[in-house]
Design brief:
By secondary structure, the protein is mainly beta.
Length: about 575
């Protein structure tokens, strides 16, 4: 009888419908990081997708250009996007309700402040996202928004007269890609008096640069000098009056600062002409199209020229350098759908007269990825990418590895590249990059002479584990940056270097660390990638701990935090 009762109770339990998952809730407060005052009317977004707004548009554009491989698989949404919105009240408080369980990015924006994404830690964290369970109440969010800073001034010519409508950017050095580049923090067009104001700047060290943009495609290029002398024109000029950024004066800007009175004296230098033909996929002149050149991320460097009905173009006043050439087929052109192609163009210090742009086929490069050591790994889906180096703008060439380890990189130009991998299997690391038998790990791959060669990528399986605890005055430091930097400066790259932020207990953990000799740093505050700056590393050398990591090693270090002043 007892057995029958148990069976009956079990049957009743099984017959009960599963309980509906309960919604979760998130609440918190937003304050000014300088004053501590609450911030009202801040707009918050809780979303399952990292990409929205311009970022989402960039993903769509990449897909439209056949560059979908540029988006790492782990950043692509695995399910339909879910988004919730909230606004902070007069006391700076906000609350999200009715949230489905899952992993979310929590972002906030407010005019006059820098946008910020919440960085969870501990059991609520899931790969940088906020992990919410069914029915969970999470009240512990605090955003301390940093006020934007501003600089203003004037752009003048060699006689002190205003240069109207100049494009002015505040750019900062970045080593996040492994080499020095300038990233525009804010850009604005000056008025007819030469006056400019840049008001959306994060704290940091900036270089002001002014340029004159030429983007009227209907204007015919002015004729060259009749005497055949070299042409000169206004070129990118860094505050106060230099065409070489190495000589420019850097400006230190603090949060919320408003700095006026900067005068940029525009300089002239050698400029050249670029002539050529726009071609379609069949090699015939591309009609109904336009072409523009742009250098790096500087809008002021944009140049457009006249294109005749036969696809022939001429662009004048082009400073020598590396450019992205964009060919755009417009509506109402020679038939077919609108399209855009992008190619790298190196402009020397002399005129170019027979340039072919448009649907000119780029080279393809075949390669092979293998795994050294024991163990079987699923190679399919690993992303391989060649990115432009220090020479200038470059469309990345990317592809995915198949089951056999083979991959094909399309749209490869004759230039220098740096190789990177995405979605590398756990338990492996990038061990070797061989180009025609020569080791290129941590070095550029020079394809300037052509793309014919053998590219071999090897993953290692004997990586080590390493963890560190960072303290200051014997107390754990949260959100410090621990960096494992190869001691050999010739092999420092984004693929050979490891970095991680500490959690609330001051710990940072690393897996699959390549064996080798390292300098270990623990900065309380540091700009992303600054550790690739040789000058910065040299200044911090006395604060480094030197270690040797052996294959399949397991090491722990107790580190003292390096203060922000250093």
């Amino acid at each position: 009888m007892k057995f029958l009762c148990i069976v009956s109770l079990a049957a009743v339990a099984l017959a009960q419908p599963p309980s509906e998952p309960k919604p979760a809730a998130v609440e918190g407060k937003i304050v000014n990081s300088l004053t501590g005052d609450p911030i009202r009317k801040a707009e918050l977004t809780l979303t399952t997708s990292l990409f929205d707004g311009m970022a989402g548009m960039g993903v769509d554009i990449a897909a439209g250009l056949g560059l979908d491989d540029l988006v790492p698989l782990d950043l692509k949404p695995k399910e339909p996007k879910k988004t919730y919105a909230a606004t902070s009240d007069a006391s700076g408080k906000f609350r999200f309700e009715g949230i489905d369980a899952g992993d979310y990015y929590l972002k906030v924006k407010r005019a006059g402040f820098l946008n910020e994404t919440y960085k969870p830690s501990g059991p609520i964290a899931s790969e940088g996202r906020l992990h919410l369970t069914s029915g969970q109440e999470f009240p512990g969010v605090e955003f301390r928004l940093v006020p934007q800073a501003a600089v203003s001034g004037k752009v003048v010519d060699e006689d002190g007269d205003p240069v109207g409508d100049a494009i002015v950017s505040a750019s900062r050095s970045s080593f996040a890609s492994g080499h020095r580049t300038l990233i525009a923090g804010d850009t604005a067009q000056g008025n007819d008096r030469g006056e400019f104001r840049l008001g959306k700047l994060a704290p940091g060290r900036y270089y002001l640069v002014a340029e004159t943009m030429a983007i009227n495609p209907m204007a015919a290029a002015a004729p060259p000098p009749k005497d055949g002398s070299p042409e000169v024109g206004y070129v990118a000029t860094y505050f106060p009056q230099y065409t070489d950024v190495q000589r420019a004066e850097a400006i230190d800007i603090k949060a919320g600062a408003d700095l006026p009175g900067f005068v940029i004296h525009m300089q002239k230098s050698r400029v050249v002409r670029v002539k050529g033909t726009l071609l379609d996929a069949d090699g015939k002149p591309l009609k109904g199209a336009q072409v523009m050149l742009m250098s790096g991320a500087r809008p002021g460097s944009m140049r457009m020229g006249s294109v005749d009905p036969d696809g022939k173009f001429e662009i004048a006043n082009v400073p020598p350098g590396a450019y992205m050439a964009m060919t755009v087929k417009l509506f109402g052109g020679s038939g077919g759908s609108p399209s855009m192609t992008m190619q790298t163009l190196i402009v020397p210090a002399e005129n170019l007269s027979d340039v072919k742009l448009g649907a000119v086929p780029d080279a393809t490069l075949q390669g092979k990825l293998t795994v050294a050591g024991d163990g079987k790994f699923d190679l399919k889906g690993i992303g391989v990418m060649l990115q432009g180096g220090e020479d200038g703008p470059m469309i990345p060439a990317s592809g995915r590895v198949d089951e056999s380890g083979a991959f094909l990189l399309k749209k490869v130009s004759a230039a220098k590249y740096e190789l990177s991998l995405q979605n590398v299997p756990k338990g492996t690391y990038l061990k070797s990059v061989l180009w025609s038998g020569r080791e290129k790990l941590g070095e550029p791959i020079d394809l300037s002479a052509g793309v014919s060669g053998d590219l071999q990528v090897i993953l290692g399986t004997d990586g080590a584990t390493f963890d560190a605890k960072v303290t200051r005055d014997d107390k754990p430091v949260n959100d410090a940056e621990v960096v494992l930097l190869p001691e050999d400066s010739g092999h420092r790259s984004t693929q050979t270097t490891r970095s991680a932020s500490t959690d609330g207990s001051g710990h940072a953990a690393f897996k699959d660390v390549p064996p080798g000799n390292y300098l270990v740093f623990a900065w309380e505050k540091v700009e992303e990638g600054d550790w690739f700056d040789p000058v910065f590393v040299k200044s911090a050398a006395n604060d480094a701990t030197r270690i040797t990591i052996a294959p399949k090693d397991n090491q722990h270090l107790d580190l003292k935090a390096i203060p922000p002043a250093k």
